[in-house]
User: Fold this.
Amino acid sequence: MKLSALLLCLPVTVLAVEFGSPGFPSSRMDADGRLVEDWGAVGVRLAGDGPFRVAAVKLDQLIPAARAVAQRGPVMMTLTAYRAPIWPSGVDVLTVRVEETQGQPAAVAVGLDLPAKTRIGNRTVTLNKRTVLTFPAPQPDDASWRAWGSCDDATSLPRWGKPSVPCDPAFRNIRAGMGGGPIRYQFSVPNKSAAKVVLGFCESHWAKAGARPLLCRVEGAPPQTVDPVAKWGQHKPGVLTFDARDENADGKLDISVRAAPGAADRNPILNAIWIFPATTTLKLEDVIAGKLNSAATRYVDVGGPNDQSLFPTDKVEYKIRLPARGVRELTFYVACTGNNAPSPTTSAWTPETLYRAALDVWRGQLTKR
Amino acid sequence: MNAIHNCHRCVSRRDCIKTLSLSALGATMLGPTIHAMGKAPSQTAPGDHIDAAMLRPRPDVRVAATFFELPRPYWLGWPGTTYDLDKHQKDYRALLAKSSKQLGIQTDLTEKPINDDAGLSAWIKKLQTEKPHGVLVMLQHIKTWPWAEKIAKDTGIPVVVFAPVGTAFTGHIGRASRVPGVYVVSTLDWSAVDGALRMVRAKRLFEETRMLWIRKNESNETVLDRFGTKVRAIPRDTFNLAFNKQTATAEVRDVASDMRRHARKVVEPKPEDTINSARCFVTAKRLLAEHKANALSMDCLGMVSAKLVPTPPCFAWTILQDHGITAGCEADLWGAMSLMLSSYLLDRPGFINDPVPETAHNTLIVAHCSSGTKLAGFGKPAAPYILRDHSESALGVSTQVLWPVNEPVTLMRFSNANELIIDTGKVVVNVDTPPAGGCRTSVELKMDNIEDCRDVLGFHQVVTLGNHRRALEGFCELYGIKHVHSPEHSTFADRANT
Assistant:
């Protein structure tokens, strides 16, 4: 009998395991291998049936951790969770290890089960504006992705804009790349097709020009740098047009807005996106007034009610091809009590440095005189 | 490192401790003032004394280094046929050995230069295995720049690129300088390379530091992003309870005596006040040693406000900082990290302060009560100081350190782990209290490149003697920290529009 099968024959003796770091509330891994936090739970899904064996372990004989093991057909999945004691109050590190155990190549889909109403970003999951989970890397392209949506880790800020003139309602809402991250959108389009893209802005924080210049890129068009206050003024809606094209013939049109080099305020903003047929002649004041929304093939009230993520709600999935006896590991950073998961935009944490942080702190506990 | 001195083989206890203190700080000379307060009093029982300088971390620092050249002989192209490769490399090897020895860095310099892709690949593999704390590449041909960038990309290890003049144009330097984790030194001035090695050492010091965060009623430990510094929170009462137990030992009396003796003037503090201040110093050392910690930041003002201690710890913090031990005020974590940057990178104490724009002269007054005195460096003579009481409470002892007039200074402040504010200026005058109110060390600065003093960014900035802007910017670039400066042009000029 193989070792993995033998392990599964053993009785499940632990229903849940708590773990943490000194001075902070614990987190819990339940009997189904789900990590239970103050914001909800995250589970890891792999096709097939079979129970998890959950146990308390000590990593390097020092760091308290929870481990769950399950066999799914030829693949053994091992979940390990421990608390990395990062300032100010830590983060839980969840490692998912999948291993082919029967000597045959295997294709598996590892998915995360997340609470309803989470918003999936490029590398983060947010719930009620709290970053509850960070991915190790962007999700790979997937057929389940929506036809259009944001694919970044920016924050929606409804009613942030205060346009001082009558205009489309989209100018009241924004998404902002807090921490200096870009705002990115992707739209499915016919391969190699052209389109006219209009981006809308309304700066309602800075009164003075020069604070938040933005670098706007639309696939197939020359990039444009705009300082909304310099060009239109504070609280004044304005638009930029781009002759776009699916230049790389992948059937997708990429749009991004980021802080221009040298910008004092590194958080980019975007209020609205319109995509029109390439041959459309536009009166920009009509676009600003919202009179051409119905003529657009896409109209996005960025950060508003009709905005959406490119990634389906509560679904994060990695399709993995394992060679015979092959192993693959994925690491997720999960927010624990009272904290956010570290931002991939601003944080320098890596799985290695997080683990070292835990080792340092637990060693420090032992060596305290 | 054992912070408790227990050496029985020394010729004399004082000499031994003095030597250890100096080597810990890389110092070459000791000023004749309050630095000596870390010394062991002759009456103290063996093993009872804690040498403050020994509380500073002593990390191993490993740097891998090599030369990049193209196959010889050179014909046209920079640095040119006349460039004597062997001589330059011999000179740089000697300089690197000297710097490494002085800084306590273990440098692994390849025996031969790397001159082809195969050699580069093999070295990258070695770096990936050995994971040194930093990499130094010394360019010997203008066409080797892509190799330097590849090292950074493939290893993720911070890379210092030394490009002696003759191996780069604007484009090379501009491009490589924007690669994350790369710091380019384009110069013939070896001291800049030495400075870059100090950056690697400073980062290791941060990583090996545990800071006591003495505040509230919390007990936990966390680690700071990017720096790896451990922050151990302990309840505020820990300090005053330990202080209450600290009697006026021989060491305490010696420190108090030195404190008065070396002062240019003692204004308010009575002998009992200086004894209490010295008790603070010894208490702090003991807490640091107990927790195997190397720095602290404490809610001192809260303790004074609650009348838990008869003196604020200002002068104790002054002594600790002169020994290279970061001692921060008001439990300001990032203020303490900014002090630590001055200590670890610039080898001198900083002065955390409350900034006051002086609008009549368009200057900035920086004021607090815990300035170090070794302003020019741990191994340099101390600045004069006057013993005062803590002006806000009229309690105990604090310090008025007299900063040298007309000397350049640098202001720095971490906003968080990702951003450092850097400004420079010059000392105009030391401000007395009275006539001024506020803190006892009060220094008026004329700021560089800031049109209006009201625009100076930050609070609790750390002021350090000397213009260190380039060194600080380099540290930031090597470790992925954004550096920002206060606005050059007045933001008040068109306030009608704001």
Remarks:
- The longest helix of chain B spans residues 271-290.
- Residues 210-484 of chain B form a domain with the L-fucose Isomerase; Chain A, domain 3 fold (CATH 3.20.14).
- The longest strand of chain B covers residues 419-430.
- Chain B has 13 helices and 21 strands.
